[in-house]
Recover the amino acids of this structure.
């Protein structure tokens, strides 16, 4: 006979979930008691950061990842992170403590009243077991839910007295043993039809989305584009949690704009739009217009039934994106279409004082390490970063697809934990940095060699840009004077320095990337502006 705790840890072990991200409270201590030596607990100081770290880790490993939160207030703090993880399709098992069962009805202190309602909209499944003995089986079900497409967070509330209870024997054994193969191949007839349409199209275009990287379809995406000589756009950066195609490839033509009108205008002249591994589309802001250029049809391949159902136009084929790409490459013949003209390399941006975001990104490109990974939350410089880094290896870019801030610094910690041998560089605006700022401490505590580049423009630039777009004026709360993120980093025990010219920044970034004994932060002053190039 095993206790619920023993059975649960056996289950986590069976799923390779031996890294737990958490912030503990009294209601979680019984779970953490006699913590097994083959597990590691990564402490985050606030729950939004805890979930962000686990989000980065889950995406970079491709494996379900356990987050342990403190009853209602911990879950409340985490909700913004769950919203992000859902958009990023991150498979998270989120557990939270609960009062002991005999005190729930009387709502003793820290009771998580209606525990499953809080996170409900942002998780695929939320549950509080009816009997202590079934906790391991419920956790197993939750892990399977999180791991199936669309992957995403799930939530289980566990009363604190359950951990020492006896577990159901059958349920426990089954829970640890069951394997669910979740990659479903698309309908072969639909794929053959698509192959024929692609071959017959006059001027088809490929729009590559984040699920290509997540599903291991990177090489097949390149092979398809090359065989059919397709120009390739990235789906809009707003929903681009990962890259779907090497951005330095000669057939990569750019990133689609996120507004309806501009997006269809960009695709003008194409008769077939093939969207793979993206929603159709992560639009924002609202600029109405035709959904597609005249004469164009659209077919999307997605593993997410929700994405297929809600697309405002086009047809969809449901199935694993990696498998679909591999099969499609086999089905299509080589084309003799003329491939697109390669994009020119980005030129040197003009020198200014303070430097522009483009100059800062040019410095980043100069210092960019071989095999580097960018974790990005820098609203006014995201496009400049994409254009100047032109990242071209899988698993090299992470961004929050939902737009909720607090992802960048936290996710960088999780990605570095997952990718020990690759240099992780987190590029973050000084406003965005504050939401996940406590994760700097975790990076120091676990000696993770992340490089943090903070772009300091003393404002919420992107909101000023939105103010113009929304035609509103005299909005308060968009200035950030005197926010010195380097000083904050030092208080968390991190070495930090300022760099105020392109050369200084290149040098500071090179030094930070080379440092292997722990994280470094570089703060760069940048001018006000939206930096697209
Ligand atoms: C949790 C959360 N709160 C608020 C916002 C709204 N918001 C979007 S961008 C932004 C400002 C970002 O500022 P900064 O990181 O300095 O980047 P900049 O726009 O100056 O490049 C804010 C507050 C959000 N997206 N998420």
């Amino acid at each position: 006979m095993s206790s619920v705790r023993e059975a649960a840890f056996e289950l986590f072990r069976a799923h390779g979930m031996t890294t737990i991200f958490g912030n503990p409270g009294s209601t979680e201590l019984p779970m953490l008691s006699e913590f097994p030596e083959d597990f590691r607990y990564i402490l985050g100081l606030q729950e939004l950061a805890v979930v962000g770290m686990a989000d980065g880790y889950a995406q970079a490993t491709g494996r379900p990842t356990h987050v342990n939160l403190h009853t209602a207030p911990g879950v409340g703090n985490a909700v913004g992170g769950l919203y992000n993880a859902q958009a990023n399709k991150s498979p998270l098992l989120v557990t939270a403590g609960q009062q002991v069962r005999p005190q729930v009805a009387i709502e003793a202190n820290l009771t998580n009243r209606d525990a499953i309602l809080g996170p409900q909209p942002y998780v695929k499944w939320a549950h509080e077991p009816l009997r202590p003995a079934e906790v391991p089986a419920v956790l197993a079900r939750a892990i399977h839910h999180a791991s199936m497409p669309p992957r995403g967070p799930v939530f289980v509330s566990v009363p604190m007295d359950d951990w020492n209870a006896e577990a159901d024997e059958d349920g426990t054994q089954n829970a640890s043993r069951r394997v669910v193969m979740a990659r479903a191949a698309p309908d072969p007839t639909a794929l053959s039809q698509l192959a024929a349409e692609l071959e017959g199209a006059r001027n088809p275009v490929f729009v590559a989305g984040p699920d290509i990287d997540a599903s291991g379809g990177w090489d097949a995406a390149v092979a398809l584009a090359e065989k059919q000589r397709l120009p390739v756009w990235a789906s809009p950066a707003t929903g681009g949690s990962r890259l779907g195609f090497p951005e330095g490839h000669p057939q990569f033509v750019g990133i689609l704009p996120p507004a309806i009108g501009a997006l269809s205008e960009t695709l003008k002249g194409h008769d077939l739009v093939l969207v793979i591994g993206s929603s159709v589309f992560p639009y924002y802001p609202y600029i109405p217009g035709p959904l597609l250029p005249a004469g164009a049809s659209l077919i999307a391949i997605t593993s997410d039934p929700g994405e297929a159902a809600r697309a405002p136009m086009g047809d969809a084929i449901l199935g694993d994106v990696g498998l679909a790409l591999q099969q499609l490459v086999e089905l299509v013949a080589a084309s003799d279409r003329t491939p697109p003209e390669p994009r020119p390399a980005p030129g040197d941006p003009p020198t200014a004082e303070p430097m522009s975001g483009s100059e800062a990104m040019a410095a980043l490109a100069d210092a960019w390490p071989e095999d580097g990974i960018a974790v990005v939350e820098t609203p006014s410089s995201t496009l400049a970063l994409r254009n100047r880094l032109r990242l071209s290896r899988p698993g090299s870019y992470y961004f929050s697809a939902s737009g909720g801030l607090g992802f960048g610094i936290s996710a960088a910690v999780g990605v570095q934990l997952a990718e020990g041998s690759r240099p992780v560089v987190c590029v973050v605006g000084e406003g965005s940095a504050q939401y996940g700022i406590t994760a700097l401490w975790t990076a120091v505590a676990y000696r993770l060699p992340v490089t943090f580049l903070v772009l300091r423009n003393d404002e919420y630039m992107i909101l000023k840009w939105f103010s113009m777009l929304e035609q509103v004026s005299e909005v308060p709360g968009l200035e950030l004077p005197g926010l010195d993120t380097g000083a904050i980093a030092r208080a968390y025990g991190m070495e930090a320095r300022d760099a105020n010219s392109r050369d200084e920044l290149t040098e500071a970034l090179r030094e930070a990337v080379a440092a292997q004994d722990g994280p470094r932060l570089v703060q760069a002053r940048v001018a006000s502006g939206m930096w697209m190039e």
Q: What stands out?
A: The chain has a mean pLDDT of 97. The CA atoms of residues 310 and 322 lie 22 Å apart. The two ends are 63 Å apart (CA to CA). DSSP finds 21 helices and 18 strands in the chain.
